[in-house]
Amino acid sequence: MLIISAAIPLLSGSFARGAESDKPPAAEKETEATDKGADDFKLLAAESIGKIRHDQKAADLIKLYGEPKSKGKPEMWEAIGEWVEEWKYPALGVTVRMSSEKKDGPKKVLVAIAGKGCELATARGIKVGSTRAEVVKAYGDVQEKSSEDPPAEADKDQDKKDKEEESFVAGSIYGGLIFSFKDGKVSEILLGAAAE
Fold this sequence. Notes:
By secondary structure, the chain is of the alpha+beta class. It has helices spanning 2-20, 25-46, 58-65, 132-139, 156-163, and strands at residues 70-71, 75-77, 82-89, 94-100, 108-114, 167-172, 175-182, 185-192. The longest helix is centred in the first third of the chain and has 22 residues, at 25-46.
């Protein structure tokens, strides 16, 4: 009897807490994931490579950096349902993928990639040639957390060697910055989404 009377307040507390939240636990987890996704896109909206920003209108990009040296042919990307055209700015060391809903419609920046010879920096001051430590210092607070299991003991040495060549994701691969490294230094910066 004593156990039952002790359990009733616990159970009623659980029901009361359940009543306080209009969402089942699964929905709360989904909201957390959505909030994280919103944070990723907040980072994407705040970031740039030089003055190149995600979703920037073509006219604004041209006003800042002029016409691109070359433009690729528009291709339909089924995954996003938009036409994508590659603009090259070799003097800047930048390639920009422009997207539009219609083949000849108004274009905006989908992805910007800074590579060899690029002197433009991100909003937090990272550019091609920056060290891994500088990237971690600047973007450690928004680094995408890997869901992979930690490496087995035997794999740790190889993992350490590979670390010099791998990438660092700020935000997420669905919207953020992706830094690629070679010999411990940034070799490429991608602004936008690397996955759809």
